[in-house]
Every structure is written in structure tokens, then in C-alpha cells.
Amino acid sequence: MASEQRLEIKENLRISLQQETLVNVMQNNSSIFYTGIVVALDQGGVIMTTYTEDGLANGYVYLTYQDIFDVDFESDDLAKMEQRIQMAQRLKLIDAQPVPYQLNQKVALLTQVLGTALVEQQALLLTLQDGTMLEGFVTAVERDHVKLRTFDKFDNREAGQRQLDQHQICSAEFLGTELRLLGQSHSLLFRPHLEPLSETTSLKIFAILNRACENGQRVIMVPKLKPELFFIGQVRAVNANAAVFAVVDMNGLFGGYELIRLDEIGQVIIKSDYLRLLNHFVGLNLSQGTYRQPLLNDERAFDKTVDLFQMILEQSRRFKRLVRIKLTDGTAYFGLPIRSRQPGELGLRYFDEDDPLISKRKRFRCSEVVEIAFDYLDAELTKQQFLGHH
User: According to the lineage, what is the superkingdom (predicted)?
Assistant: First the structure.
């Protein structure tokens, strides 16, 4: 990077600090960018608050200047994020405000982040110059080195020890929602590995879902199409064709509902390190009163004796609830169901990704829909945000 560009980046970050301006910070060699407000600068790097797409505060990140490619002050994305942040604060959502973090201007920022993590046993997510990402707890901070006890939340066998030169670290995330929960789950992360238990045959999956519906057990559902988009939840209704899940997100928070056709389910996992951890997260959130955002309803009941797809689509149309649907060809749409004159057919007024203020219309048969996500936070916030435009 040219020295002029680096000076411009530092100046833009300084403006964000002085004026408390929301910015997008883009990283080198990465599609990941952070949205937030700069809270501190030093010779080596910057600390900024970070926000989720729902406008919720999600801890802080330390970035070295060498890792920053660009700083964006004005964009449609930033304008949308400012609206979301204001909305989250107005609605008094959980994590609408950043958690306090005290800094000493006389100590290097990275040293402070590592030292505080050591003293308070906070979990960190570090990215190294070679692109390696490590999650762990700091066990020692020396002049130029740091020692970590690392973990893998998906597989306890991967836990270990690492010693790093501080100059290897190009970013450090800390005090985000998931990282705070991981900090409260120290002993669980280093327990003996739990051998996964799963089923892939349709008859056994059906039996597991029925049993989980009766006893409230959470399971991991892995779809056939894009298995990386798995989700965790309790089964709220299941029949011969489909199942409704009350989903929890990666922070153990209620994340709305997911309806999926049984023949789209590739695997159901009923035991694993990650499922055990997420159940622990849910327990922590329930005990702390942070399990459900005030906008959401985690107590909906579903009638398994009817066509669940038609029922959800019709209810969403009647009560003007936004849904995300996936069709048999794999395409996904986010919008508002509307009436169609053809039997067995429904319309959707969906959002244009390039311009959310413009909606388009599509008609489809209910039998073409294989998944519906509904009553989740982004859908509720989007409904409020664009109620005046649609």
C-alpha cells in the first residue's frame, strides 16, 4: 500500500473518532468488512465498535493499519445501517448499546486488548497475517509474544496451545455477543470430545423429529442443498411432509421459525460438541433474560394436521408478515405474500436486492416452496423500516 493511501486511511479513521461517524472498514485480501465507530487510535492500529446487520452492537475489533484496505464514509449500506442502529436503540433491543470498554491512552492498543483478555479471561478471535483465524483465551502476555489456549467450538479435539509474535496479529475481535458467551463457557470448550450422533435415512429422521417435538430436544438440521447452511432448533410441529423448527442463532438467541419439507433434509444431528455448546448458550441467555428480542414471539403454536406451507403463507399474507422462501430450483426470495386468483398459487411482492425501496412481483405454486423462514428479527425490522414505502 502506498504511503499516501495509508495516511488517507489514518486521517479518515481519525475523523470517525473525532466526529463519532459510522464507517465501513474494508480489510485486505478479505470480503469481511466491519461497520462501526472508531473509539481509539495509536501508532499500530485502531479499535472500533462493530454492529451486526440488524443494527445490534457486537463488541469491538482491533485492526492494524496494514490490514485496512479502505474506509467508507458514505454508501447506501451505511445509510441503511444507521437506520437499523437507531431503530434497535429506539425499540430497546437486546445489545442495542455497545458494552463499556475502558482504554488507557498510554498503553499500546493491542497490548491492552490482550492484557484485558488475560485478566478477565475473555475469549478472543484473532486473525493472523497468513489468514489463519484462532479463537482462544490468553494465558500469558509478554513484551513481544502472547500465549493462547485455543479452542474449536465445533470440535473439542482441536483445542490446543499457541504462542504468537504480536506482530503476527492483524485483527482481534473481542466482547462480541458470541465471544462473551464463549467466555462464560470455558470448561465446556475443553471437555472431552462428544462423538457426533446423527441420522441420514428418511424414516429415522422422521422418528427423531417426532421424538424431538415431544420432548423439546434441540437438533441440528442439515439441508441437502447447501449443507453449510445448517440450523439448530426445537421441532414445534412435524407431519408426513414438513417440519417447523423454532431456531436459535449462533448466540443461543431465539431466531424465528423455519419450515422445511422433510425430503429436503439431508441429516439430523442429535449429539455433538457444538450442539452441547449451543444448548449451554441458550441456558445462559434464559437465566440472564436475554433469550428473546422484544419484537419476537417464541411461543407460536402450529397445527400439524394441515398443509403447513399453505397455512404459513396464508397467515403471512393476512397479517402482512415478511417471509424468506426458497423454491425447488434453489432460488430464494424475501418479501410479502399476496393473493393469487389461481387455486394452489400464491404471489409474492419481494424486495429488489439492488434497491430495497423497489419491490417486484412473482407468482408460484405452493408446491414449489421447499423452505420458509418467518418471524425472525431481520424480517420484523425490515417490515417496520419499509412500512411507509409498501
Answer: Bacteria
